[in-house]
Amino acid sequence: MARRLYLTAPLIAAGGLGLLAGTTPAHAALTTPPAATAAPAVTPVAAQARLMMLLDASGSMSAPDSTGKPKIDAARSALHQVVNSLPADANAGMRVFGATVKDKASPKACTDSQLAVPVATGNKAALSTAVDAYKPFGETPMAYAMQQAANDLGPSGKRSMILVSDGEDTCSPDPCKVAQQIADQGIDLKIDVVGFRVSGKAQKDLQCIAKIGRGSYYDASNTQDLTASLKTLSTRAFRPFAVSGKPVAGTPIVDGAPTITPGQWTSKIGQDEDVRYYQVKHTPGTTLHVSAVGRPGGTDDKSRSISVSIDRTDGSSCYGSDSAWSSDWAKTAMPIGAVARVDANDEECGHVENLTVKVKTGAGGKPQQELGPDAMPFELRVVEENPVTNVPSLPAPAESTSDSPADWSYSLTGAPATGGAGFSDALELKPNTTYAATLLPGEVQIFKVPVQYGQTLVARTNVAPPSLPMKAALETSKESLDVRMGLFNPERQSYSGYDSVSLSEYTTDRADMASDTRVVNWRNREDGMTPTYLAGDYYIAVTAEDVPTGGAPISFLVRGDVTGTPTGQPAYGAPGATQAEGPDEDATPSGSPSSSGTPTGSASPTGGSSQVAVAPVADDGDDGGLPMPLLVGGGVALIAALIGGGVWMALRSKGSQTPPNAPQSIGQTWQY
Fold first, then answer.
1. Phi and psi dihedrals of 416, rounded to 5?
2. What phi, psi does 113 have (nearest 5°)?
């Protein structure tokens, strides 16, 4: 039976952030650097998502709000602000209900719903006109209007419905049952709800719709509340978490599992407890990295987990860093994920061609024969790393430090930025630069910073006190709100926990968060506990808990400070070349970051610093197009030497599925 190293404990402590082994390799000869991959081209999320505003036009909307003004006036004012703030390419529409039939006894009263503006882009003028024409009139056929709005949004893709109502459904069927029917259409459709001065049964019904519809419920009593709620929900609708890659369907049993090759794939798995199997064609003598990351639907309190393992086809386990954790990010939009690795010189599996990858959620004891509509989409990435020929001369594993990074000492202004909703669309930050962003309750924003061997990343955020609408929501909810920051390596592996700050209605001062990594060092993988063993893009994830009573954007500053001189570059040989072990004697450890983020030690160089040049790969619009950064380190002379030495890149095709433009492993830094 093969050996197995589990990294579960540190990852649970880390807060269950989403990891993903994600390189997709090419094969290189001789001294090329590690397999590198960059994020595939991602369509802007605003262009992918579709939003339908579903508005109650019943006669009760003429009643006063908390300020004494008619609720319809507050609704119009709020909607105009929302329409004006929509992204230019937003796919949005508007439907009303109860707008034309006043007689409750009329058979048409319970089908009184009109599509005021179809879902489309470039229709802000039409939406504004429809808002002006929006008047209180008839009954409340809410369930029927929800059914029609779901049809308006279409059968697939990221879809959001924002329902605004001030009362109970006066018709049948039960709107909660209709919400369940809509939710059964799939995890990509959600229903957010704003209750406008409601209580009792009406409030419970609306909260039920939001809960079943995997959305959020907000209470509003006036223009300010309604504007804050609608802006929050409409903004979030155009920041959905999205996966990218070539689709592949895993199987609940190992027999019949699909064969995949290096590249980025998308698949689905039951989010609570399930197992999916895949067969991998592995190039013997290369290190195999496999990762999976997805985001469960909703932002409820339920903790969920995912894990990845690599096995031989006879069922015996390979020696892999099988990382799994229970999500400590419940009530946030943080992805969950896992990463596994089989080293090139592993005696049991390093030279095995056919391997099995198992992805499971929860305990995995109840595989689903047929996936339901709540199945979780996830990215599955497979990367091969050529053997490293200069291991003995590389710096020893970096020492850890208990010192905390220094407090925020930078300006409280920064360049505007909006992080990605996932890793594939993470926003790249220029190192040592401050950026200003806003975060919605229940949302995650992910940023990336390039870090080379011999360098350290210090991630810092500075969070502003909550705005007045946010304080009002916190006061109503009687809860505080946690804002958290976590770090991930290029494989989306969580780095030793997260930092957090707590906001309440009493918070008046800004608050800092800071986390740092060990020096990035190829040999850090030897201790089995340090995820800074690859150069490439490191990720900073910032997320806030959801607030059951609504909320408003939270302002924060973020920066990724990179220190240290690039050094310790591994030399890569051809697949099957001997990968030497590190020296047995204690070597001088790599420098560890001080509390200020500046390395205090030195790393043994292996040829000086290197530069990274990106050679783009043609992207045909599919999900697999990834740029291939080449480590040049000496310019034209080195390029000529590599060509003369027979460096080659090729996608392996062994009768299995291969994503178009799949990233490949040649000597490079890893970017996703």
1. -60, 140
2. -150, 135
